[in-house]
Write a structure and sequence with these properties.
By secondary structure, the protein is α/β, with parallel strands linked by helices. It has helices at about 40-50, 70-75, 95-100, 115-125, 140-155, 170-185, 200-205, 230-235, 290-295, 320-325, 335-340, 345-350, 355-360, 365-380, 395-410, 425-440, 455-460, 480-490; strands spanning about 1-10, 15-25, 30-35, 55-60, 65, 80, 160-165, 190-195, 210-215, 215-220, 255-260, 270-275, 280-285, 305-310, 315, 330, 360, 365, 415-420, 445-450, 460-465, 470-475. The protein has two domains: about 1-235, Rossmann fold (3-Layer(aba) Sandwich), CATH 3.40.50; about 255-490, 3-Layer(aba) Sandwich (Rossmann fold). Helices cover about 35% and strands about 25% of the residues. The strands form five sheets. The protein has a six-stranded mixed sheet, sandwiched between helices. A six-stranded mixed sheet has the order 16-19-20-13-21-22, with helices on both faces. Helix 5 packs parallel to helix 6 (about 170-185). The protein is globular and about 70 Å long.
Amino acid sequence: MNVEMRGIWKAFGANVVLKDVSFAVKGGEICALLGENGAGKSTLMNILGGVLPADAGEMLLDGSPVIFHNPAESLNAGIAFIHQELNLINDLAVYENMFIGRELVQKNGLLDAQRMIRETQAVFDKLDLDMDPKTMVRDLDASYKQIVEIARALMMNASIIIMDEPTSSLTEPEIERVFVMMRALKGHGVGIIFISHKLKEVMQVCDRFAILRDGKRVAEGAVNEVTTDDLARFMVGHDIRTMALQRQRDTAHEVLRAESLSDHKFFHDISFSVRAGEVLGVTGLLGDGRSELFQAIIGAGSDYAGQIYYEGKPVKVRSTTQAVDYGIGYLPRNRKENGILKDMNILENGSIVTWPRLAKFGLINRLRQNLEFDAQVNRLRIKLEHKSDRITNLSGGNQQKVVLAKWLSTRPRLLILDNPTQGVDVGAKEEIYDIILDLADEGVAIIVLSSEAQEIIRVCDRALVMYHGALQGEVSGDSMNEHDIMRLATGAALN
């Protein structure tokens, strides 16, 4: 199947988000759809997926005009949309998830489980996938959940599959597993639209690219004719810095020191320290225990043995409220699940942590609340229309900045950032890096948790590398490179 979108326009009120955009994908190719957060990618795909109508323009399937009034019509035409938040039910088996909403039944009205298992297995065999259809979804790792979604799309005879940030929360081996599946689909004549901010992955798996900026298509072409720097420049409209961003600065007193921290499950015998004005990286492969370690440190995770010293004094932080009182901020790994409150507006999300400080006799000082948030909006260059809008109206990068604003409003002395640029476009990444470095210049102790070695290299003064819950080594200076980081992250020692 070949899909073509011509001259697509879409506006929400006075905000025009798509301006005469044309886009095409054909069966048997993987096409990257790229752009900064807010560039119009999701809107364009929602039109293709039948979620939204276009204001103007046309869509063609194999040369014939079509209009989709709802997602079901798009799916019936052979277009499947796999969203970033997977639509799987953990408490059901794989084969049951494969047939949700279209269950097979026997003549007596009972579910035909055996037939659903057989048909699921047939799809798995076609994809050369070694998986038991009776496996419970909750027992699968993230990559296999992604693959189940892909297999389900294929079972529904999808000829075009839209994949929205499919690798955002996967480890390197899991990413490669998904890529193997994508290449298999390509070999079966399926066209894939790959939406991602990870340009290195685009170079690995995609054939073509199309780039949106400010609602317009600004570039397209063959992936093998460009570099990641080219793609980044097309996305933001200017060259992106690639060098390390560390600055020479005087680090002051020790802010946090951990001695022999262990919880006997996620991490064991961890000792480290961080000083005021220092950017300390903590990296490794996903599942290495670093998130659990720092959640425990701020009182949001498991109990642990060992000792923490904060500003030179032994402490035991037992809650996030106590962490805030100490001057510790924590930006969580998963923004959508743990960082934002979807039912609250932008202002509420950006100031909720400071409500106790702003309240008197149970009433929040609205003037101070607005003034303090406005200061963070200006500082972080948050793009918004109205503070009263829902937080979900913002792009991913601006949502992340609001979460960051929330913690900066507490005036932290120690700020822990868990994957601060996950799901954020290249332009917003650079802005967040600058914010991190500016905070360090102001004397804030910064800890950056990240699986991206390049991110650690660019922004951190030194880095700790974890492996299976243990501290495997430390890198700095000449040893702060991808090769040495990966050696440590996979359990090898440095020579």
